[in-house]
Amino acid sequence: MAAPVASLAAISARPLSGPGAARPASGRAAYRAQRAVVLRQSDGDSLGHLGHLAVLALCHEAVGGWLSENGLLRRAPREAVGHVTESGCKLHADLTCTDALIAGLRVARLGLSSVRYEVALFRDAEDHPAAEAFFVQVHVDAESRRPMPLPAALRAGLGAIQG
Question: Which label site among 8, 99, 110, 139 has the fewest CB atoms less than 10 Å from its CB?
Fold first, then answer.
C-alpha cells in the first residue's frame, strides 16, 4: 500500500530543515526591511514559472541591493569577501515572471564572521510569503580565505534588520 501524500499546505507549514532551521512562514511585519524585486523574463522557465534557483538568486540580489543602498557593500579595495556556505528555499505558492513581488529581509543570526539572512517573497498585496529562502554568508580574508570578523560598520547595519 502506497504511503499517503502530504498536501501542499502541510508541506509548506514545515520550517526549512537543517541546523538553524528558519522559523515557520510569517507575515511582512516579521521582516525588518522590504524592497521591490525586479523580475526579468529570463528568471522563469519555459512556462514563465520561477523555480528554486531563480528564487534563491532573487533573494541574494535583494540582500545585495539592500546592503548597497545602505552603504554596507564595499566594492574595492576588498579586505574580505563573503562566501555563501549554506542556502535553502521553500515555495509556498507558484510564482511567475509577471508577479509583482516584494522581498522582506531579516538577519536571523549574526555571528563573529558569519550572518544568516532570511528573505521572504510576497506578492504585491499579500501578507503570507509565496516563497522563503535563507543563506549563510561567511566573511573571509580576500587573500588567505580564512574567516575573519565582520567589520563593525557592517555588524551595526545588519543589527538594524536583525529579528
Answer: 8
